[in-house]
Amino acid sequence: MDQRRVWITGASSGIGSALARHYAGQGATLALVARRADALQALARTLPGDHHCYALDVTDAAAIRQAASEFTTKSGLPDTVIANAGISAGTLTEEADDLAAFARIFAVNVQGMVNTFQPFVAPMRSRGSGRLAGIASVAGIRGLPGAGAYSASKAAVIAYLESLRVELHGSGVKVVTVAPGYIATPMTAVNRYPMPFLLAADTAAPRMARAIDRGTSYAVVPWQMGVAAKLLRLLPNALFDTIFFRAGRKPRGLDL
């Protein structure tokens, strides 16, 4: 059985809770991080083993550092840190009401990932081992209409993780970029358009975990969306614009 220590943000639902179920089933000790204490406690009660819950917002760097210190003192330095916390909403630059949504999406999806990794980078480097896994998205491959904030945040995450990977080259610490396609979660449940190759979260989680455990630098789940994303990247701008101008869009509005 796995005796690893795994830190997961955004653990209260969706991909995060599916990853928690997977790693707990492998015997790992988990740090479950999310804003909702009740949801975290409810999840922890369903998992085998003893785990630690930290109700906090990933935009609060001080709270992350304190939780990281507490978990490390109680259970040891994590072997794997998964920065999964993320939010999404339809956004339009022309709408002044969406400015707050832009700011919040970038704060959670980008700065929240940096905040999550920061307390662990130096200790992992000193130990000479570890996994820092960031959950990006195929939405970061090309900008999607009506999703400027989300697409841009995930593009930033992909570039950030690449920078971090190169910084830690040769240290024994592996940086993994996981780019999910469409996964059935509360985030995608509001989408009013077809979602090709849609996967259940509990089906996707073991595939993501395999990439993380191997230290794969970049993985798309499901792989079919990786092929589709590469093809989209090859489309000339004029053709891409024409095709996606009428593409389905995520509803505007974000619970800040």
Helix-strand blueprint:
Elements: E1 5-9, H1 14-25, E2 29-34, H2 37-46, E3 52-55, H3 61-75, E4 80-83, H4 99-127, E5 130-135, H5 148-167, E6 173-180, E7 183-184, H6 186-189, E8 199-200, H7 201-214, E9 218-221, H8 223-234, H9 237-244
Helix pairs in contact: 1-7, 3-4, 4-5
Labels describing this entry:
single chain, 256 residues, alpha/beta, Rossmann fold, seven-stranded parallel beta sheet, two-stranded parallel sheet, 9 strands, 48% helix
Annotated CATH homologous superfamily: NAD(P)-binding Rossmann-like Domain
Strand content: 15-25%
The overall pLDDT average reads 91
Query: Unreliable runs, pLDDT <50, ≥5 residues?
Result: none
How many DSSP-defined strands?
A: 9
Look up the CATH topology: Rossmann fold
Query: Which CATH class is shown?
Result: Alpha Beta
CATH architecture heading = 3-Layer(aba) Sandwich
Structure description:
With 256 residues, the protein is an alpha/beta fold. The chain has one domain: NAD(P)-binding Rossmann-like Domain (Rossmann fold, 3-Layer(aba) Sandwich), CATH 3.40.50. It is 48% helix and 16% strand. It contains 9 helices and 9 strands. The protein has helices spanning 14-25, 37-46, 61-75, 99-127, 148-167, 186-189, 201-214, 223-234, 237-244, and strands at 5-9, 29-34, 52-55, 80-83, 130-135, 173-180, 183-184, 199-200, 218-221. It has a 7-stranded parallel beta sheet with strand order 3-2-1-4-5-6-9, sandwiched between helices. It starts with a strand and ends in a 12-residue tail after the last helix. The model has no long low-confidence stretch (mean pLDDT 91).
